[in-house]
Amino acid sequence: MDTEREMDSRFTTQKQQKEEYIDVNGEIGFCGWVILILSALFAAVTFPLSIWFCVKIVKEYERAVLFRLGRIISGKAKGPGLMFILPCTDTFIKVDLRVVSFAIPPQEILTKDSVTTTVDGVVYYKIEGAIKSVANVSNVHIAAQQLAQTTLRNILGTQTLSSILANREEIAHNIQSILDTATHSWGVKVERVEMRDVRLPIQMQRAMAAEAEAAREARAKVVAAEGEMNASRALKEASMVISESPVALQLRYLQTLNTIAAENNSTIVFPLPVDLLQAFLNKK
């Protein structure tokens, strides 16, 4: 079923292109030839003054769509370089082929989880088909801007707030694909779409900040509890080692005294050796 639809779509596109080609290269008729001859004679009589009106310059990044008696000549844009036109019968429109960018104004959007947010973005595009951009749409730049705003609202309206914040790059890529497909018939190629800013209501910002702070406090308590547990295990192992070797306790006393003497000048009380106390206890 999908294959048949694709074949029908291709056939329709080829048919439209064929009709457009026939229309572009159609005959201008007897009256048209008479007007062209008179225009050429007028340009010849007024030469060299007419040269300023007949010769035009098209820049490297531009293309000129030339109309002769209302018809596009040869179905191909002219340029770059010099272009010759006939006065009174020929008109032309210059099309800029460079990449153009425009900012999407902030759009107030109601997300899927009923949160009101404001989103803006920027779109980068260029014109690849000069004739399509002139013949198929009245103002390609305004049309592209309006379509970008509508597409942004439609796509973000189907997303939740968390998905918008987490998948901004993926959503921007989807918007780019939709815009590129929709503007293909206008001769426009959408290069890139970026979401610049997502503004949340103040109440939502406070709620998210409180949630993040609570999560941080919970993680801090877990880390502190793990530290206490590891410290208690280390103390238990140390006490077992000291109980096995009384000399280790004396060394620990000396280390403690050394630390105290290095930090502050204070009176130090030396404890009695544990072995001496043990001897007195044995005599009793």
Automatic annotation (TrEMBL):
Keywords assigned: Membrane, Transmembrane, Transmembrane helix
Domain of life: Eukaryota
UniProt-listed InterPro entries: Band-7_stomatin-like, Band_7, Band_7/SPFH_dom_sf, Stomatin_HflK_fam
Domain Band: 53-212
Bilayer-spanning residue ranges: 33-55
One cellular component (GO) term of this entry: plasma membrane
Subcellular location: Membrane
Main location class: membrane
Keyword Cell inner membrane: no
UniProt similarity note: Belongs to the band 7/mec-2 family.
Protein name: Band 7 domain-containing protein
Organism: Hymenochirus boettgeri (Congo dwarf clawed frog)
Lineage per the UniProt record: Eukaryota, Metazoa, Chordata, Craniata, Vertebrata
